[in-house]
Model the fold of this input.
Amino acid sequence: MTTRIPPEVWDRIFEIATHVPYIFIPEIFDKSTFIGSRKYDVIYLPAFADAFATKRNLVLVCKQWWHLAIRYLYGALLIRDTRKLLSICSTLQSYANGKGAVPGAKPLGWWTERLDVEIRGSAADGERLVDVIMCLPNLAIVHLDFRISLSIFLYEPIMRSIPNALRHAASTLRVLDWSTRLLDPATLLGLQELLAELPQLCILCCQYMPWMDGVIPQNILSSITTFAVKEMFITEGGIPGECRLGDRRVNLREVIIDAGWYGLESWSRFMCLYGTFLSSVHLTMSGFSSEALFHHLAIIKQSCPNIRRLTLSLTDFSYLTRETLTLPPIEYLGVNMVEACHSKMEPESLFSALAIFKDTVPTLRVVQLTHPDNVDRLLTVYQEVAIGALETDLAECPFRIEDHDGNLLLERLKAVVEPFCYIKYLFQSADAFD
Done:
């Protein structure tokens, strides 16, 4: 006698088999500091791409599995080759018109919550992207990254059409990562008009500050809580903002920025406008001196009386041990090195700094190593340095020290080290017995 597994059980199995953490709403909000950054692409997008292979295999098993698993295959679209746009567009439009679908079934595009477009090289068939977006009415997350080698005049019409197409999903869009350079005023104005029509938008990421006076329009500030900008300089080629903040509600609470000397004046101006609203700031200081970091921290201390969370992405943990470094009264500190630790001095500098923070930042409750690669190096190469520091200088630490997933770092280290110690003990006992 065969036992039939209920469809809802299969549905749960497919969900677990294809799950990728921090890709969809609401999990993505836990990793908001990585949105738009190369670290997000390195850490999460590979697993995101690998999951497509599993999803494709599921829908090929049989007709019943196709109907159960198709929602997971089309739950997210990752487009890295414009040559595939024609086939994707044709499939979505066919099902939207009822061709190939079971009567009463939802179109394939109805299931799509996330769209990632990363195009390198030619923009051939790029206009098909607009048609694809028009078939996706329930988009919640959109990531656009164009690095196309072609005439600007061929590129701009595509970019100008995308904001109009995204209005089709205006009521559901929560995260917009426009990680491509905004090329002309028409595209900028189209983007601003789109943003004004996104009532649910929480996170906005731009290549650089699109408003030339640095003042974000009020109808955008009333919805977004996180603003990420890769190059903090207020360009004269942008579009006019507003001369004052006005009396409307500002929901902005978090800023994520790649900082440096070149944007210091714009950063200072931005923080003067919005610092009082912020409770969380993320700074990436790759390629810049410790003095640049100190200047940015000084601006934060002066402009952000309500800050509770600070995340620092650095090229060198030794920056944290400088005598001139002072942190604001934060409760959470996230730290990571942009590159992997290649020297014992890096973890030593990190734990020395944390020992200093015990006395200099009495409000601190959590320190988290936010990059998995940094944690992996501690677990595999520098266990002795990490355990020695955590069990001596940081033994009576008033704050938690966590890995990137929120686990206690010391417990992770012991879980890795203790089995090896036990095996070593067995070998030593065997040698003694012989």
User: Anything to note?
Assistant: The chain has 15 helices and twelve strands. The two ends are 57 Å apart (CA to CA). The CA atoms of residues 156 and 184 lie 7 Å apart.
